[in-house]
Amino acid sequence: MIRIVSLVFTMILTTLALSDHARAAEYQLHAQDELRLRVLRWDGDRNAFTVLDGVSGEYRISTEGVLSMPLIGSISAIGQTAPALARQIEFEIERKLGISPAPRVGIEVTGHQPIFVLGEVTAPGAYAFRPGLTAQQALALSSGLIRLHPGNVGAFAQDTMRLGGEVRSLEAEIDALQAERARLVADLEDLDRAADGTATSLRPRPRGIEGDILEATQNARASQADRLRDLQAVLREQIERMTAQITLRSEQIARTTAELDDVTSLKQRGLTVNTRVNALTTALNDLESKRLQLEIARLTARQQLNRAERDTLALTDDARASTLEQLNRVDRDLARLDIRLATSEALRAQAVASGLAVPDPLTEEQTEYRVTRVVDGAPVSLIIAPTDPLMPGDTIEVSRSASLSTNSQ
Question: Cα separations (Å) of 253 from 150, 266, 283, 290?
Fold first, then answer.
């Protein structure tokens, strides 16, 4: 009997929980959601349900996502569905209050944080949230986009074309600079990987003219590095040969010196003639002169080898410094053009919205929805689609953005 009554009661609570404010079965609870809890227990002696007043009542989930209840304590509620939270509360009541069997809990979501609609809408402000509310529906709640009253089309068409042309020109410049920046970043990554001895980057290579420039730049740098390596190999070979020749000359000098000492001793005893001493002395001087020339040539080759090695190391460093300088220049130009583009787009949008200009015939107006939402305690800004659902507390900014029409391209 008790199980049948409990089952019926559970069905009643489930029906009550499906209020107008929380019809979405999969709605997950958010911070600041308002809840109405009904906690009932079957009293077999009285043959009726009794309300647990100490637990039933109106509650609000804290900004930290916690539901604080008397006698039970704090329960993490954010991200849970209402039925799941109800089951958890039943378990906590049975565990902490010792009530068995556990009472049945029904949760009704009675309120949410509002959403805030800003931007190019007719009626900006705060609007009540309901589960399943989309960005497009929020625009409808705020009475749609600002109505445009272009007025005298002929008078403002020229200004409109000028503003549109300036925007398109800035966009083209920005696209070109972004392509150049992609090339410089790819080149810088390859230089860093070459310095570290790691594999080539898997990043896609830039296409078009920037890809050709990157390939030509890297090929020229590789050719210069090959020439320097070839020069180093030739110089090392020359140094080895000259070292061998210097060793040979030193051995010849040692033998000639020993022979000259012997002949000098014989001459002093009158056993040889002076011409033999003079010949050996001349030969020794010639050998020492040749060895000195070889040592000077070897020293010069070593200096050239050191210079070639320094040039090889500087080749990457100089290329990296030059690339960083170009990248810095591109970033400055992009920042400057972004400011000019934002200003031009704002002026054009303001002129069109106020009726001082007409929509650019070469562009198509698109509606953009930017949402600021708190995620893990920090605000996050993101672009969403018109049919994407909103969350309680979202701030949605509606704006128009222009793009070149397909026909004009």
Answer: 104, 20, 9, 10
Give 70-124 as a DSSP string: TTTEEEE-TT--HHHHHHHHHHHHHHHH--SSPPEEEEEEEE-PPEEEEESBSS-
Comparing C-alpha atoms, which of 376, 379, 369 is closest to residue 401? Answer: 369
- Name the residue type at position 400: R
Radius of gyration of the chain (CA): 44
Say which amino acid occupies 294: L
Which H helix or E strand runs over 400? Answer: strand 395-404
Q: What angle do CA 140, 142, 146 make, to 5 degrees?
A: 95
The tens digit of pLDDT for each residue in 67-89 reads 998 888 899 999 899 999 999 99
Q: Which residue, among 152, 218, 224, has the nearest Cα to 186 in the 3D structure?
A: 218
Average per-residue pLDDT for the chain: 81
Contacts of 63 by beta carbon, 8 Å cutoff, 6+ apart = 31, 32
